[in-house]
Each structure stands twice: as structure tokens, then as C-alpha cells.
Amino acid sequence: MATAGDLRRRPGAPVPPPQHNLQTATDHALARLREQSAEQMEWLGAARAAGGWHLPVLENVLTVDLGNGECTTRDGRGVRPPWRILVLHYLGIAGRPVPGDVTGTFADLPGGRAYAGVYRARVNERLCATAGREAETLRRAALALGARPAEGGDLAFDVDVFPRLGVRLVWYAGDEEFGPEATLLLPASIGQMLCMEDIVVVSERLVARLGGQPF
User: Fold this and answer.
1) Cβ atoms of residues 123 and 205 within 8 Å
2) How many helices (H) and strands (E) does the chain have?
């Protein structure tokens, strides 16, 4: 299955296969989405829209066009390909996995340890180099995305990326010798909802949004 991360590969940064082009990824995801029942869509947190569906994503509401798979923000702006594929994949989830507690890291997932170094560089380290450099900067960024204060570290937030998919961001302040550190705690069922590469990309895209990048 094509994944969102196929769109953003970097030389020297391996990610789980396979690779497919953007159109193939969109076509496959859109075909699966069109087969979803209205009941499943509602369980996933989506609401009907003219020709498609509305879906809360972080602090925004994105609209998916069932005709062409295009995705737009609340103010009508187009969504970049990684977010578009993630939204399509989320809305194509089959079954109703119980979210479970947000207690595990990416490395704890089946197969996650092999890509833990890539994940750390693309997510944890990038966060600490951008919004996570200072506590107050991270606090403002997280609250702007609708995050809720949580327990853990020197600063922590629960973030609903999608209605049925939330994560916990835990941040530790640095000192004179070491810089800050951060991690994302993931729900136990995330592997039943998204493939491994999509998990990397949704984490990476969350960090980008915390850093002020648009959808």
C-alpha cells in the first residue's frame, strides 16, 4: 500500500517499503474510502459534506472531495500531499480498534525498533530544534493546535491529531550541558489504524505543524 511518506523521502533516511507515486497512492486510498459505510465514517469522526466529508484534524476541519480526493482546510486552502494521503488513509480504516492508553513509543511497535533512529531524527530531534527549543514556545504552539495539558516530563500535552487518533507529547527541559529532549507516546492500537510509514509521517507532520508550517 502506498503511504504518505513515499512523498517525502530523503537520501540516506530509510523508511519501510514499498514506494508508489502520488497518483497511485491517492487512487488506492480514495477507492477504499468510497467503500466505507456512513456508520464507519461517523465512528471515525467525519461528518457529511457536499460531495465528500468533513474531518477534524488538529485545530482545523479538513474537507475531502470524494470525486478527486482533494483536501482543503476550513478556509478553502489546499492541503499538501502528505496530509492529504494521511487523511485518506485514516478515513479508510476498517474496523473499530480500541485506542488504548498512550504509553508506548514508536520503538515499542512491532517492527518499530528497526526504524527508531530514523523516527528519532525526523520527529524527536526536529521538534527540539524548532518549537521544542523552549518551554513557552512549545506551550503556545501546542495550545494553538488544540492540545490539552497532560502529565509527564517538564511539559506534556495530549493532542488529537484525528478524532480517533491522539498522541501524548512529553518534553524535558535541557540544561547547561544537554539540550531539551522530547518523545511522542502513541496509543496501543495505532498499528491497527495506520501502517508503519504513515505513523512516522503523521508524527513528523505534527512536529511541522507545531513549528508553524501549514497543512
Assistant:
1) no
2) 8, 9
